[in-house]
């Protein structure tokens, strides 16, 4: 199985995903160019944000169609932020049409992330501070991600930025208080650790929370089973 991941993310998820795949898909090896794709390997590339990821996908599908090396499956992961159900459905249709129009005979999986990568990271209940300080109290009082589904959390009405930026700020404050270290997109640190991933997986096994993360993990387990 040759797997290709196209991420909207440009920093944090791009850095973390290889570490997570070492745990979830130990039989697979990472390669860095399409020419190096072979059975039991994967390639991760960035789509450089939305909507640019659509153009990157069109170009990659054309390249795969015209070249000798192509993956067996393409997974596209993108943030839905505060999109309406109508926009989520519309964007999915656009991606479907891109694959259909390419004529490329390849399996593909669309994995929208609710709301963003940092939303998934908020699902680690072990990282929720046992003692809340003044800085974190405003987040905990608005929404307790240790008890309620992070993927459902929006942001305060008076908040002037996007839902994704609010989730990022929430995560920064949470991890700073619980670990003493600041989370940065360019240097995600602890979240790449296998124990962090295990805690997120425990969350979806213990609860019905984080449905988009669950779909991602089920996809990876399906790849693992194909290699078994």
Write up this protein.
With 228 residues, this protein is of the alpha/beta class. The chain has two domains: 2-115 and 210-227, Rossmann fold (3-Layer(aba) Sandwich); 118-206, no CATH class. 47% of the residues lie in helices and 12% in strands. It is built from eight helices and five strands. The chain has a five-stranded parallel β-sheet with strand order 2-3-1-4-5, with helices on both faces. The N and C termini lie close together (11 Å). The relative contact order is 0.16. The mean pLDDT is 96.
Oligomer: single chain
Output mean pLDDT. Answer: 96
CATH C-level name of the largest domain: Alpha Beta
Number of strands: 5
The unreliable regions are: none
List keywords for this structure.
228 residues, alpha/beta, Rossmann fold, 2 domains, 5-stranded parallel beta sheet, 8 helices, globular
Summarize the structure.
Helix content is 47%, strand content 12%. The chain folds into 2 domains: 2-115 and 210-227, Rossmann fold, CATH 3.40.50; 118-206, no CATH class.
Give the topology.
Blueprint: E1 2-7, H1 12-24, E2 29-30, E3 41-46, H2 52-66, E4 73-79, H3 85-102, E5 107-113, H4 117-121, H5 134-142, H6 163-179, H7 194-206, H8 211-227
Parallel strand pairs: 1-3, 1-4, 2-3, 4-5
